[in-house]
Design a protein that fits this description.
Chain A contains 16 helices and 19 strands. With 529 residues, chain A is an alpha+beta fold. Chain A has two domains: 248 residues, D-Maltodextrin-Binding Protein, domain 2, CATH 3.40.190.10; 225 residues, Roll (Dipeptide-binding Protein, domain 3). In chain A, strand 14, helix 12 and strand 15 form a beta-alpha-beta unit. Chain B has a single domain, classed as Orthogonal Bundle (MetI-like fold), CATH 1.10.3720.10. Classes of the chains: A alpha+beta (529), B mainly alpha (296). Chains A and B meet through helix 7, helix 9, helix 12 and strand 15 of A and helix 12 of B.
Chain lengths: 529, 296
């Protein structure tokens, strides 16, 4: 699976990747980058925003990671794991932990810390949120028989097991810290990563300096980094344009790319890639009338996704009409089959007539009002919100928009304080387990903000995850997709994103991937001047 | 009573006192009158918006995204193909409704607080003044941002956010006027007649500080429009797709500032014109109502 995904994504990566093999990395310097959003807390196991990954990943190590020198962003290599083995029945993964790794507070890292971290992710204590625990339903236990060995036992063979253990969210925390307080990492930082935390000035920046005891000899190249929080898109672009920042790692819009190219010419390098990210619309099943399947189907039927792709791709970072998988990848539904799903038909007049019929049938009157809560990040949230509101107007709904500050966004939607909200799903690898876990029932998945319970959907997730035969897995993924976006319309998919990175010429050793979550430890990044 | 008696040989026209006052004001303060005319025109445009605009301000036209100003769209279209002129006309509703509501409520509350402080004096006045001092120590935009950050965005919150900073500003000015009349014979007479505090404040003192109150209201309206535009520009005011001038200056207007300058130019002009009009009118009104500034 990984091989095919790598090949596909390799073909899809469009960027002019910076030259690398012939260049000798230069040591020193401070990398300054802008981050459009600030971390809601410091706990990566809990949070879901790049606003945490970008400034905090450099302080931590992972068990496995995506090779930062792989432009496809799909090759899995060891991080604190020196090596690993997989049992013949594919149910046991045994990892050897590297020697000589220490936390920034001086404590040595052992397999016990790996076990405690994964227990925190897969089997969180009561009151501890773990956003991605739903992706680990196949994992039965984690043990640490000795200081250098961590063993993961699965309930069933899972094709995505290694990918799940290479998650960029799975920072390795100290077992002692977690034992004293399972929520300690929400407010503190202590890892084994290439940089040591210096300070966080709220609303301004996070500062890191080189970790002299980092476990990889010769790395990191940089003396330090400064992650500057800048919410305004225009201020971010102005910072790069004026040389006050070298890059913004999430992505810029097509217009911003052109602005920077025009202003900086050869001083800016552009990398582009399909983006394993999409906006999904969460319809709160705890709020009437969104508990009614007919209303949810009407909302998806009202949307002309093909016009949306054609129009919005000119002004923001969305591009493709897609189902639950990135178009063109192994388990993606072919376009012709996609058109049979609710809201994907080419005849929009017919879809909207059906939407109006369903709304009438559900007792939703013309002019029914509701509020769409949207995340206060310009691209692509704002254009997507404006487009959806117009589409829903066309079936007689009166929708207003409320913009939620990025830092308050997750607490709002986690609390269920919305009727309909713009949500998202981003993966760090194109892999059904990673892309679909979110949509399992609330309780199974802490990231299901639509707040529904659907045992059938959960079962389909398990079927696809356990399938060893690719055709069978493909069928299960399609069945999952049909139930999620068509039959039950639990969630509403909008468009797949397209990633554009504009970086100052001197930034080297960083390669774009289809995920804005990987390659952020920055240990292999360097500055040419 | 009539004002402005008929000239010899002309047809006598009976004028209402209001019309006479308006004409007199226009003669003495032509710049202020021009400001008032602009405000009146804006109000008219806002009220008649549904009849005046060529397009639905919310309706996108993806075949005409970022169209230059031309015969079809006089002021061009935005990134969603929405007609900029229609959005500016409808945006006048947002600007004026927020401006009027915030200025009126803020100035009225401020006037009541100011007069009450002056009337009661002593500890009440001391406490009111210290609270006013604290609130005045915050810049206007910071106080408004704090309110929006705590309560979320939306038209109602924006009005409240703009109202709050207006209250202490008006209270300070009105108090100084009220101090001058708190020992006036008619106030003492009202007290002697046994009227309650509320009646004395509302019926006898407030009407006598109307001149500074009206000046404050007018001055606040321009500020309120500017503040609403600032909050919307910062993403803390009204939200898309509501047509609002400040909102039109953000997002695509910034993204496409070089290739589609009309996105920022026309809403920017609308804001400038509105604020200028209120300021000119407010200044002239102050000159007209302040006896010290009247030409002998």
């Amino acid at each position: 699976m990984r091989r095919i995904a790598a090949a596909l994504l390799g073909l899809l990566v469009l960027g002019l990747a910076p030259a690398r093999a012939d260049e000798e990395p230069r040591r020193g310097g401070e990398l300054i980058f802008v981050v459009p959003s600030e971390p809601p807390s410091y706990d990566a196991h809990r949070e879901e925003t790049f606003g945490l990954i970008h400034p905090l990943a450099p302080f931590y190590s992972l068990l496995l990671r995506i090779d930062p020198t792989d432009p496809n962003g799909s090759r899995i290599v060891g991080d604190v794991a020196e090596s690993w083995t997989e049992s013949r029945d594919h149910l046991t993964y045994t990892f050897k932990i590297r020697r000589g790794l220490t936390f920034h507070d001086g404590q040595p890292l052992t397999a016990r810390d790996v076990k405690a971290s994964y227990d925190h992710i897969i089997f969180p204590a009561a009151g501890v949120a773990s956003s991605r625990k739903g992706a680990y339903v196949a994992f039965e236990s984690v043990t640490a028989p000795d200081d250098r060995t961590a063993v993961f036992r699965l309930r069933w063979p899972a094709a995505a097991a290694l990918a799940l253990l290479a998650s960029p969210w799975n920072f390795i925390y100290s077992a002692d810290r977690l034992r004293q307080d399972p929520r300690w990492y929400e407010t503190h930082i202590d890892g084994t990563g290439p940089f040591v935390f210096v300070e966080h000035v709220r609303g301004s920046h996070i500062l890191g300096k080189r970790n002299p005891r980092y476990g990889r000899p010769g790395l990191p190249y940089l003396d330090g980094f400064r992650a500057t929080f800048v919410k305004s898109d225009s201020a971010q672009i102005a910072a790069i344009r004026g040389g006050r920042a070298m890059v913004q790692f999430r992505g810029v819009s097509p217009a911003e790319r052109e602005q920077l190219q025009k202003a900086l010419g050869g001083e800016v390098r552009i990398q582009e890639s399909p983006w394993d990210c999409a906006n999904w619309i969460a319809m709160n099943h705890d709020r009437k009338p969104f508990d009614d399947r007919r209303v949810r189907r009407a909302l998806t039927l009202a949307i002309d996704r093909y016009e949306m792709a054609s129009a919005l791709s000119k002004i923001t970072i969305v591009r493709d009409v897609a189902g639950v998988q990135v178009p063109g990848t192994e388990y993606a539904t072919p376009p012709a089959e996609l058109e049979t799903l609710a809201g994907y038909g080419r005849d929009i007049a017919r879809s909207r007539a059906e939407a109006r019929r369903l709304l009438r049938e559900a007792g939703v009157t013309e002019g029914f009002r509701f509020t769409l809560k949207n995340r206060g990040i310009a691209h692509p949230y704002e254009p997507v919100g404006v487009y959806l509101i117009d589409q829903w107007r066309r079936v007689g709904l009166d929708v207003s928009q409320e913009i939620i500050e990025p830092a308050a966004y997750f607490s709002t939607i986690r609390a269920g304080d919305f009727e309909v909200a713009v949500d998202f799903q981003c993966g760090y690898l194109v892999e059904p387990d990673l892309d679909l876990y979110k949509f399992q029932s609330t309780g199974v998945s802490d990231a299901n903000y639509a707040r529904y319970r659907d045992p059938v959907l959960d079962d389909l997730y398990r079927q696809q995850s356990r399938a060893t035969d690719k055709a069978a897995r493909g069928r299960a993924v399609r069945a999952f997709e049909r139930r999620l976006v068509d039959e039950e319309a639990h969630y509403l998919m909008t468009l797949q994103w397209h990633r554009i990175i504009a970086q100052r010429r001197q930034l080297r050793g960083w390669y774009i991937t289809p995920s804005h979550y990987v390659n952020q430890q920055l240990d292999t990044v360097w500055l040419s001047e | 009573m009539t004002t402005g008696g008929p000239a010899v040989g002309s047809v006598a026209v009976a004028r209402t006192p209001g019309a006479g006052a308006v004409l007199g004001f226009a003669r003495r303060h032509p710049v202020g009158a021009a400001g008032a005319a602009v405000i009146a025109a804006m109000a008219l445009v806002a009220v008649l918006a549904p009849l005046l605009v060529p397009y639905d301000p919310l309706a996108p036209d993806y075949g005409a995204m970022l169209a230059r100003p031309g015969p079809a769209h006089w002021l061009g279209t935005d990134a969603f193909g929405r007609d900029v002129l229609s959005r500016i006309v409808w945006g006048a509703r947002t600007a004026l409704s927020v401006g009027f509501a915030a200025a009126l409520v803020g100035a009225t509350l401020g006037a009541i607080v100011g007069v009450a402080g002056a009337y009661f004096g002593g500890l009440v006045d001391l406490l009111v003044e210290r609270v006013v001092d604290i609130l005045l120590s915050f810049p206007l935009i910071i106080l408004a941002l704090a309110v929006v950050a705590s309560l979320g965005n939306g038209v109602g919150t924006v009005i409240l956010a703009i109202t709050v900073p207006m209250v202490p500003r008006c209270a300070r000015v009105i108090r100084s006027s009220a101090l001058a009349i708190r020992r006036a014979p008619y106030v003492d007479a009202a007290r002697a007649a046994g009227y309650g505090h509320a009646r004395i404040i509302l019926r006898h003192m407030l009407p006598n500080v109307m001149a500074p109150y009206l000046i404050m209201v007018t001055a606040f309206m321009g500020q309120a429009i500017l503040l609403e535009a600032s909050l919307s520009f910062l993403g803390l005011g009204v939200a898309e797709p509501t047509p609002a001038w400040g909102l039109m200056l953000k997002g695509a207007a910034v993204d496409f500032a070089e290739t589609a300058p009309w996105l920022a130019l026309f809403p920017g002009l609308a804001i400038s014109l509105a604020v200028l009009a209120f300021n000119l009118f407010g200044d002239s009104l102050r000159d007209a109502l302040d006896p010290k500034l009247r030409t002998p």
